[in-house]
Amino acid sequence: MPIDVQIEDRVQMRKQHPCGSFEWKVTRIGADIGLECVGCTRRVLLPRSKFEKRLKKILNRDVDLGR
Ligand SMILES: [Zn+2]
Fold it and tell me: Are 59 and 25 within 8 A, CB to CB?
C-alpha cells in the first residue's frame, strides 16, 4: 500500500539523524523523496521504497505506522 505523503509534511523516521533529530520535512515527491532535517536543515534524497521502509509517523496528520 503506497503511503500518502505530501510536500511540507513533517515525518518521523525510524532512525535518528546524526544531529539527534528524528523529524524531517518533506521537500520533494517523486520517484525519490526529498527530505530536510528539522534539526540541522540537511537535505537528503531517498528512493521512495527506502523512504517508506524508514518512515514511522507523519506527524502533522497524526499518521502512525505503528513501528
Ligand atoms: Zn539532522
Answer: no
pLDDT digits (tens, 9 = 90+) for 10-66: 999 999 999 999 999 999 999 999 999 999 999 999 999 999 999 999 999 999 998
pTM: 0.91
Is 1 a domain residue? Answer: no
Q: How many domains does the chain have?
A: 1
C-alpha grid cell, residue 27: 521537500
Judge whether 55 lies within some domain: yes
Q: Do the Cβ atoms of 67 and 59 come closer than 8 Å?
A: no
Calculate how far, in angstroms, residue 20's C-alpha sits from the geometric centre of ligand 1: 6
Q: Is 3 domain-assigned?
A: no
Give distance in angstroms: CA of 64 to centre of ligand 1.
21
